[in-house]
């Protein structure tokens, strides 16, 4: 299935839509009754009905009837393939337009208003542990910005229970998601492996969107650099960066900047430098055959014993053990 064939397939009325376009009444096509929870009265969907063969399930949301208030025990991404979508999520009215995504946490109550002919919404649902294994478990292998944004996404997911990504101009994301949909709807050999690889790519692209949104938001509040800009600078200059020099570059008082970094990231300036050194060291151990004392020197450690101790504190294993694990 290519993207043109996918478009034709998604725009056709499916069996449920042929009924709903006439009755305007929602039809439960899950195959089991959705029973309301006794404590909230909200209908609950269970992942066991979707994840029998694959930890990812993708479907088109049926048009022409409302989806009543419900929640589920899995993570969901709503992708607006075409048109628009209006939802009430955790009590808030939310409008999504073509190309945007909404990440919904486990157990967040939401309802969806009826979709019309041109409104095509794709539901991408995943087990919570699948997202953790394929995406969040890899954070230690990336830089400070990636780490900060991923933690911010996780924190927002816990606090607001959903995140709206303004991804309508991100062509890479549209391409990846359409490929995912094709892979799932035209299932063939190795499709499961392909889907497992698409998940971290899609989430990483969403991180780029989130970073852009956060930078725009912060630029409206101050003419000085955002926390993301500051972290990017630390990533690039971790070997020779000082708090005083960083403060001068971004027009902050050093004490104020140190406190702001601690408040926004949960770590001190020195802890961030240390973390970036460890991240860079892990990259060199994984991707090169440089001797460990050379790696230590390259990331700013003169003594191999001190480097070994700090690396083990950060990763739980020695540099030699880490390299051996990564090569297996």
TrEMBL record:
| Signal peptide positions (record) | none
Please name the SUPFAM superfamilies in this protein's record: Homeodomain-like (SSF46689), Regulatory protein AraC (SSF51215)
Q: Which UniProt keywords apply?
A: DNA-binding, Transcription, Transcription regulation
- Record flagged with keyword DNA-binding: yes
PANTHER family, A to Z: ARAC-FAMILY TRANSCRIPTIONAL REGULATOR, HTH-TYPE TRANSCRIPTIONAL ACTIVATOR RHAS
Instruction: State the organism named in the record.
Output: Paenibacillus enshidis
Cross-referenced InterPro entries? AraC-bd, Homeodomain-like_sf, HTH-like, HTH_AraC, HTH_AraC-typ_CS, RmlC-like_jellyroll, Tscrpt_reg_AraC-type_HTH
| Presence of keyword DNA-binding | yes
The HTH araC/xylS-type domain covers 228-325
Q: What is this protein called?
A: Helix-turn-helix domain-containing protein
